[in-house]
Amino acid sequence: MRKVGIWMYQNGGGDAIEQKIVAKLRERGIEAVTGLNLRFAIASKDGIVCNGTNVSELDAFFSYNAGEQTVMQVYMYEALASQIPTINNFEAFKIAEDKFRSNMAMSTAGVRTTDFLLCHREATEAIEEKFDEWGKMVFKPIDGWGGAGMALLENRQMFQALKPLLNQMDVRHIYVERFIENDYSDFRVDIVDGEFIGCYGRKAGERDWRTNVTSGGSVIMREANDEIIDIAKRATAAIGLEIGGVDILYDTEREEYVVLEVNGIPAFATPEQEAMGLDFNDRKIDKIVEMLDRVTQHH
């Protein structure tokens, strides 16, 4: 019997989603081994063993837990990806985790992103010059998520005030993006295996410019038009993700849609969000199960 390893978040209804995935895999003759947090794996020449399971001998591994990632877990994830198929594939996962690399990949593929700049902390003249062209910009940790560590910089003085803090934190590279004039709401578009799954929006709180729910934003109902769906598909493909949640803003100044970032572990709708009318969970589960079925047949 084919076997798939799963590490899935459990909060916000994730446990129920996992149970559905396990049941649908069983219907296809695939056994699922759950709770495989690679942080606690032991590796040797015999393979990578986690919770008594030699995950190196599985037919595929499905990693879907953004909130509990650790350096060790990601390291083992990379090692495992060299032995068996993983979803998402590790290389695409790493690109999606890096805001600079993901924007580079999308720009190279012709997907519209905001303007961005990366430089060493000791060579920031290029950033200061960009204030004349961009006006406002956003400082972002290249590997942050949920809006954490971001700062809106409206002028050179604000950037100069930020620099001592970055030096104290030993930040080596400074990454900034042109601030996109918008109505403080976005589109989150879910793509699985190249197909559109669903869309909703997020709206910033009254005292913040970030739409992230963890930063005070709230989920709103929203429908994606054909252009938005096409952008999301191309953005996910540019990074190489099997599963992606694409955040898209409408630039009110330039009157165009812009990809803000692509999330490699986009959450399913919570029970509360399903009660609002977000109904894409079952489609997403079905597509993930179909993909795991196909991948394990070829392994």
Write the layout of secondary structure elements.
Elements lengths: L1 E7 L5 H14 L2 E4 L8 E3 L2 E4 L2 E2 L5 E5 L6 H11 L4 E2 L2 H8 L1 H10 L7 E5 L4 H10 L2 E3 L11 E3 L2 H13 L4 E6 L6 E8 L2 E9 L14 E3 L5 H14 L3 E9 L4 E8 L7 H6 L4 H18 L1
Helix pairs in contact: 1-9, 4-7
What key attributes describe this structure?
299 residues, alpha+beta, Rossmann fold, D-amino Acid Aminotransferase, Chain A, domain 1, Dna Ligase, domain 1, 3 domains, five-stranded antiparallel β-sheet, four-stranded parallel β-sheet, 16 strands, globular
Short characterization:
The protein is of the alpha+beta class and 299 residues long. It has helices at residues 14-27, 71-81, 90-97, 99-108, 125-134, 156-168, 226-239, 271-276, 281-298, and strands at residues 2-8, 30-33, 42-44, 47-50, 53-54, 60-64, 86-87, 116-120, 137-139, 151-153, 173-178, 185-192, 195-203, 218-220, 243-251, 256-263. The chain has nine helices and 16 strands.
Question: How would you sum up this structure, described in words?
Answer:
- This protein has 299 residues and is of the alpha+beta class.
- The protein has 3 domains: 2-87, Rossmann fold (3-Layer(aba) Sandwich); 96-100 and 104-109 and 182-286, D-amino Acid Aminotransferase, Chain A, domain 1 (2-Layer Sandwich); 115-178, ATP-grasp fold, A domain (Dna Ligase, domain 1, 2-Layer Sandwich).
- Helix content is 35%, strand content 27%.
- It has helices at residues 14-27, 71-81, 90-97, 99-108, 125-134, 156-168, 226-239, 271-276, 281-298; strands at residues 2-8, 30-33, 42-44, 47-50, 53-54, 60-64, 86-87, 116-120, 137-139, 151-153, 173-178, 185-192, 195-203, 218-220, 243-251, 256-263.
- Strands 14-13-12-15-16 form a 5-stranded antiparallel β-sheet. Strands 2-1-6-7 form a 4-stranded parallel β-sheet. Strands 8-11-9-10 form a 4-stranded antiparallel β-sheet, covered by helices on one side.
- Strand 12 and strand 13 form a beta hairpin.
- The chain is globular.
- The model has no long low-confidence stretch (mean pLDDT 91).
